[in-house]
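User: My instructor asked us to take a sequence, write out its structure as tokens, and then describe one feature of it. I'm not sure where to start. Here is the sequence I was given:
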Amino acid sequence: MMPVRRYLLVVPLLVGCGKGNFNDRKPSAEAVMTYPLESKVTTLDPGKVQDVGMADVLGNVFEGLVMYDGANDIAPRLAERWETKDEGRTFVFHLRTAKFQDGSPFTADDVRRSWERSLGKTLASSVAADYLGAIVGVAEFASGKATSVSGLKVIDDHTLSVTLDKPRPYFLGNLTYPCAYVVGKAVKPDEIKMSAEAVGTGPFRFGRVEGDTQVELKAFEGYWGGKPKLARVVRPVVTDPATRVNGYRNGDYDLINLSIGDLSTVRADPKLKSQLRLEPRPSIYYFLLNQKAYAPFRDVRVRRAFALALDREKLVNELLPGETVANGLVAPGVPGYQKDYKGLEPDMKAARDLLAQAGYPGGKGLPSIELAYRAGRPDARLACEAAATAWRKELNAPVAPKALEWGAMLARRNQDRLQMGYMSWVADYLDPQNFLSLLMTTKSKLNHDGFSSAEFDRLCAQADVDSDRQRRLGLYQKAERIAVESAARLPLFFENAPLLVSPRLKSVRTNLFGLMPQTATEIAG
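Assistant: Let's start with the prediction itself. The structure tokens for your sequence are:
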């Protein structure tokens, strides 16, 4: 994103109306919260979104049946309650009374229609099958053999039955992802590109949207949870980290995300340092080693050599202060996190020996390697330059960092054309399945590493359906160690997100995923 919590390339949007600045900070009786988006608008459609910024925006406009609350537990949202049957294969959701922002009533059939829309060929969501694909009948629906998803049964206007192909202990977590949000009755099957078309049940509706510059949200007075205390939320697009800090210092913004490079400046500022928050996120930054695009990485000895030749602790502590060195792949806050696991610790001699055993003594014969990172991110540039220097020094490996525009980088990643990449993954839901089975099993569409291990696949498949919590976590831990020790990808750090939060904001709710919908936020008088 969730990372989007995952990430999406930028697409053209026919959004909103009118030009001009609607982020007017002049004194007003209206309660307005302003905080920047770090990238241009990617999509207005919950079935398509994969980036963290727009997922945050859309989470205020649309809702799903469940959500993560402030204690990081699954909590009711459009579903008031639910029960399971058939040893966990069937969920029966009892829905609350609510209405859409156009005034139409919310019903169980809207959930069925919205999920089938996300899964349909017209929308062509790249993520819906990953999160809703366990529902019986999805494969037949996706292939055109069925006109509806047989596992979705509307019992009455306020009751929905969902049957899965097998028990999935993480399924409620799947439903927190935006592709499971419910869209209004008038929303068409193709992608939402006009803000007026984006109708949900959430606490805010879209106001003016200008995809390259700003997004405005307006409070929905008919929200089932009560009208928000904010009248508007304004999200100007500010891609430069220094500009965000200066704007916050000048009072233009109420909250900003900081880059790691800004921390020293903020901590030295008597005023700003008291407004600094470091918030843990269930996310990992890592180096992608793509076996599909760089043939030497198909040899586990080469991958392990790169892992052993990198002193992650030194790199993180010197260049990325405040972050937590990652030795594994499952982030803190996620059940099954292995706090004491050491992973592959640096060993320069062993690294050189492995490379020689693989047929590349002293790096001789290694083709050049492009290490891609996101342009405009100083911390990414520093990390990649330091890693490339270490690999050239210890292995004589011809690694060259290269900045790529984010959309271009993700397009190449999604096409499996990145040789190496400085990447991140933010959990969609708090379960190790989201870090392991979903991303790294052999047949996963999201496996851009080219990693394949029969034992890893077996352990994940067993854990994915095991109803015994401790046993399934143990299986995932074994699988994680196989991936780490095979150097399937190289973990670097777990994120502690630095934020600046203005004292004028009150009751800002957060959880491990960041800001929660702005239902309680208010402006100090």
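For the description part of your assignment, you could build on this observation: The mean pLDDT is 93. Try explaining in your own words what that tells you about the chain.
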